[in-house]
Task: structure prediction
Amino acid sequence: TYVIAEPCVDLLDKSCIEECPVDCIYEGGRMMYIHPDECVDCGACEPVCPVEAIYYEDDVPEQWSVYTKANADFFEEL
Ligand code: SF4
Result:
């Protein structure tokens, strides 16, 4: 799955939403989140993010590693 990290917080550019073929990017409070079970790893969202907030799960920068769980946890709470 792809993961949205800290640069998205309080920005919510949402360019990614239009690119996602399975509509698995959701708005939640201060940032956007990718549903880990719905993402098909197409990678279409990553290059359109103006702040490079989106990463493949294995490529999430160390300082933002908590966002992998944060994306998944967001949907657990729904
Ligand atoms: Fe959607 Fe593809 Fe991005 Fe996954 S990688 S969130 S399927 S656009």
About this structure: The pocket of iron/sulfur cluster is lined by residues 2, 19-20, 22, 24-25, 34, 39-45 (CB under 6 Å). Residues 66-76 form the longest helix (11 residues). DSSP finds two helices and four strands in the chain. The CA atoms of residues 33 and 64 lie 14 Å apart.
